[in-house]
Specification:
The complex is a heterotrimer of chains A (about 180), B (about 250) and C (about 350). Chain B contains 11 helices and 9 strands. Chain B is of the alpha/beta class and about 250 residues long. In chain B, the strands form 2 sheets. In chain B, strands 2-1-3-4-8-7-9 form a 7-stranded mixed beta sheet, with helices on both faces. In chain B, strands 5-6 form a two-stranded antiparallel ribbon. The chains are: A alpha/beta (about 180), B alpha/beta (about 250), C alpha/beta (about 350). β2 of chain B pairs parallel with β9 of chain C, so a sheet runs across the interface.
Chain lengths: ~180, ~250, ~350
């Protein structure tokens, strides 16, 4: 089944990294995936967006207008992209930064304070991995085991604590996601 | 005494340069130095645009003719992929000091291991004598009929001085070809530049002050005298940088 | 089976170039192609090749000119504004009959335009990459895999013809990561440097001349030879994908990224019972004239040109083959605004359903 994901936020929030990790994990599972980054002209702090398409077969178009899953990391991104998720899709919001009402009643909204959870775990940079965990818990788009393998590969040159922290973040995300399981 | 004969890289045909033009002398010097070094088969002439392009007809070694001003870029592609070759570019003043300024400065700054020989005759010869970046103040050309006015056209560009400010070049020198001594010094300078290149030392730059009887509208003899009284006082011959000598 | 990797289109191009025998690259930074020089800056030295960051697009293409003259497989890459600067050098490559690969990862234009992807360089690529009336073969892959396959073979065409080859791909495909299968490394043997080159590593012991300047009768002869070569390309080298065209009443013509979005729309419209097909030029020059010319216009009711640029630039080439036998429509986005599935689907459906009404 073809599933599309749009990750949005500002530069530095791990948007691109989350997208690549998801796409990479899908490939490792034998699926097909495309990952398209879109940057503003700024090197830091500008808007960041990436689109991931995952499919069992070859991906014809990597440019969906509407996505099945929208992941928003801040209010600016929410305001800009709220209409880009398909009715019946998933809108995953970083509740640490998005305080207001999310005005879509035709999508499944999952709001989780991922920045706060990341701080509790010990590093604000793992917020994006918590998001991936929530997606996996809720949709089972990729397997946890393969994702952990991807993370192992990604952090192979870092201290072991980095991987441990990311796995912890992933697990806490999955726990949240499972409470919002989509059948 | 050795027999005087045509350098092996000069084609057995009369030169088409205007009577009294020093381009012929400059190319002969280069060809003779290459013979002295036994590099005729290994040399590669990057031919620029202007009267220098006529070398295509007179130079019987390997030639690559390139776009206006781009010889140092093309030479970079050649030398980086074939470092064993003796590579030189022969460029005029419009080619090198105007349209090709970025290419020459950047190649020099990268310390590319080839030699650029810069023939400075203060005019665009082939296109009919327009003002060049090196045209002297007051010198008349077809685009400065009252003489070059620094108020609107700036001052003649001193390439040796500019290039010698860069860190990488190893040998930068200027010679005037209007006297036997100047010619002899130039021959030594070209030889030194080529030797440094063959030793892999880096970028070498030889400026040769030449003339253009046709566009200066003078007799050949008058151009040589004009060079003494006007060109040489502004473009002073000499060695501007000699990194290897500094080391010693 | 080759080696599989998940790579950005730009990186895939760079790796395929190395495997295709490229041993010299010169370029200048410009978005959205920066991954090509960045990748080659460390990758080429690994295989004994040379990477040079030029001081400009102009010098970079002339460095390629020099390296190619020595028989080295050489390339440069850029995006629209930089390709304009390279126009001089590409014309000289064609004049001096030097093979080279030029890659344009295109963006919105004209001028500095936009750093976002667009297909706004079709006319430049196919009609006049520089002065003097020459052409290059222009390939427009629509995936990272096809980019790999194209770049890997690019020098085979370039050296066969002694003419530069252009790969035109928009910034979207340049930046999308997809899985690619990489071909094996082609062997580079200095002793086999082409006989026409100025290399002496191949044992050549006579004078070599390479020049972009000729006497008049020789230049006229070379112009005529080039004309023959372009005709031969049309006979032998056209690459095109025809998808669900046999019974199609409406035929979309689209290349590169636009072809993928269009194919998605065609599939969806077919599910809905509309007889829509797709012709995808893979070579933009030579253009797949026959595929469009030989359609059965008693059946085909319309041709729809979909491009990620406004106005459509391929339209004249299409109309010259349609010859007013049916209407030609166009749909596009431009300026760095991307085509998307729904937009293309709706645009095609409007035309198709409108035609039926």
């Amino acid at each position: 089944m073809k599933q599309s994901f749009v990750f949005t936020g500002s530069g530095g929030q791990g948007i691109m990294s989350a997208g690549i990790t998801l796409a990479h994990t899908a490939i490792d599972m034998g699926k097909h995936a495309t990952y398209l980054p879109e940057y503003g002209p700024e090197q830091r702090g500008g808007s960041a967006k990436c689109t991931v398409v995952i499919n069992d077969d070859t991906i014809v178009s990597p440019l969906p207008r509407m996505c099945d899953n929208l992941i928003v990391m801040n209010e600016v991104a929410l305001a800009k992209f709220i209409d880009d998720v398909k009715p019946g899709g998933v809108l995953l919001a970083n509740a640490s930064r998005i305080k207001g009402e999310i005005e879509r009643d035709d999508v499944r909204v999952i709001a989780a304070p991922v920045d706060d959870i990341a701080l509790e775990i010990g590093d604000p940079r793992v917020a994006n991995i918590i998001l991936l965990g929530i997606l996996i818990g809720a949709t089972e788009i990729v397997s946890k085991e393969t994702l952990i393998e991807s993370l192992k590969d990604k952090f192979k040159d870092k201290k072991p604590q980095v991987l441990e922290m990311n796995i912890k973040a992933l697990n806490s995300g999955i726990e949240i996601g499972e409470q919002h399981k989509i059948n | 005494m050795a027999e005087y004969k045509r350098a092996s890289l000069l084609a057995d045909s009369p030169s088409g340069y205007c009577p009294g033009c020093l381009h012929g002398l400059a190319t002969k010097l280069i060809a003779e130095v290459i013979d002295d070094l036994g590099q005729a088969d290994n040399s590669l002439n990057v031919i620029s645009v202007g009267c220098s392009a006529l070398n295509l007809l007179y130079w019987s070694g390997d030639n690559l003719s390139v776009a206006h001003g781009r010889a140092p870029a093309a030479a970079t592609g050649i030398k980086r992929t074939n470092p064993e070759r003796l590579v030189f570019a022969y460029q005029g003043d419009g080619d090198l000091a105007a349209i090709g300024l970025a290419e020459i400065m950047s190649a020099a700054n990268r310390g590319e291991n080839f030699t650029v020989i810069f023939a400075n005759n203060q005019t665009y010869g082939m296109t009919g004598g327009q003002m060049a970046p090196t045209t002297l103040i007051g010198q008349k050309t077809t685009t400065s009929i009252y003489g070059r006015d620094p108020q609107t056209t700036g001052y003649p560009m001193k390439m040796c001085e500019l290039i010698s400010t860069l860190e990488a070049p190893v040998f930068v020198a200027r010679y005037a070809l209007n006297s036997p001594k100047g010619v002899n010094d130039a021959r030594k300078g070209i030889k030194k530049a080529f030797e440094l290149q063959l030793a892999g030392k880096g970028f070498t730059f030889i400026e040769l002050l030449t003339n253009c009887p046709t566009n200066w509208k003078m007799s050949p003899m008058q151009t040589l005298e004009y060079m003494n009284t006007n060109t040489i006082p502004y473009f002073k011959p000499g060695i501007y940088k000699d990194k290897e000598a500094d080391v010693k | 089976m080759g080696e599989k990797r998940f790579m950005k289109g730009n990186e895939a191009i760079a790796e395929a170039a190395v495997r295709g025998g490229c041993r010299f690259f010169a370029g200048y930074p410009i978005t959205p192609q920066n991954e090509i020089p960045e990748y080659l800056s460390w990758r080429l030295p690994e295989v004994g090749g040379v990477y040079v960051q030029g001081e400009s697009e102009i010098s970079s293409v002339n460095m390629v000119y020099g390296a190619s003259a020595m028989g080295t497989r050489a390339m440069t890459s850029s995006s629209g504004p930089g390709i304009s600067l390279k126009a001089e050098g590409i014309s000289y490559l064609a004049a001096a009959m030097l093979p080279a690969l030029v890659v344009n990862i295109s963006r919105g234009g004209p001028g500095l335009g936009s750093i976002q992807p667009a297909q706004s360089d079709y006319l430049q690529a196919t009609k006049a990459l520089g002065h003097g009336g020459f052409h290059c073969m222009v390939f427009a892959p629509n995936s990272a895999q096809e980019a790999v396959d194209t770049v890997y073979e690019a020098w085979e065409y370039a050296e066969r013809d002694r003419n530069p080859v252009l790969v035109l791909m928009d910034g979207c495909l340049g930046n999308i990561m997809e899985e690619v299968e990489l071909p094996p490394m082609k062997e580079v043997i200095p002793e086999e440097a082409p006989e026409w080159s100025l290399s002496r590593r191949n044992g050549r012991d006579y004078q070599g001349n390479i020049t972009p300047i000729y006497t008049e009768p020789i230049l006229e002869g070379l112009n005529a030879m080039a004309g023959e070569m372009y005709k031969a390309w049309e006979e032998d080298d056209v690459k095109v994908e025809e998808f669900m065209v046999d019974d199609a009443e409406y035929v979309v013509v689209a290349y590169g990224i636009a072809s993928r979005v269009s194919k998605e729309a065609v599939l969806k419209l077919r599910e809905e019972g509309y007889k829509v097909g797709l012709i995808r030029p893979i070579t933009l020059f030579p253009f797949p004239k026959k595929s469009i010319h030989d359609l059965d216009y008693s059946r085909v009711k319309g041709i729809i040109d979909v491009e990620m640029t406004i106005p459509a630039q391929m339209r004249d080439d299409i109309e010259l083959q349609v010859l007013e036998r049916c209407p030609v429509y166009e749909y596009g986005r431009s300026g760095g605004c991307l085509l998307d599935d729904d937009g293309v689907y709706e645009a095609i459906k409007d035309i198709v359903a409108g035609g039926e009404a």
